[in-house]
Amino acid sequence: METHLDATTLIDLIFLFVIAIFLGVELIAKVPSILHTPLMSGSNAISGITIVGALLATGLTPGSTFCTVLGVLAVIFATINVVGGYVVTNRMLEMFKSKAPAQGGKT
């Protein structure tokens, strides 16, 4: 099974990609600092869905080397995003935990 992209489809995909970049930059720039942790958790869930989609896309095109390489790269980048997001979220939540008093303190 061989798929071909015509010029119109390729231009449409590039246009969609550029619009998504601009939308993402504008959205993130307008998020207040207090909402970054919940937003990070939401983006981790979306990246998890991206991993599933990339695995499906990779598995559905077994004869296409290009699609397989793109699928593997999508899985790698989405996995890095999920793991990094959870690390950052965990670090941010650690800042809000109360610290236990020191043992053997002053009397």
Description:
The chain is mostly helical. The chain has a domain at 33-94. The protein has three helices and no strands. The chain has helices spanning 7-29, 36-60, 65-94. α2 (36-60) runs antiparallel to α3 (65-94). The chain is elongated. The N and C termini lie far apart (78 Å).
Helix content: over 70%
Q: Report the biggest beta sheet as strand number plus sense, adding barrel if it closes.
A: none
How many helices? The count is 3
Distance between the termini: 78 Å
Write down the secondary-structure element order: HHH
Instruction: Give the total of beta strands.
Output: 0
Which regions are unreliable across 5 or more consecutive residues at pLDDT < 50?
none
**What integer is the average pLDDT?**
79
Nutshell version of this structure?
By secondary structure, this protein is mainly alpha-helical.
List keywords for this structure.
107 residues; mainly alpha; elongated
Q: What are the SSEs and their pairings?
A:
Elements: H1 7-29, H2 36-60, H3 65-94
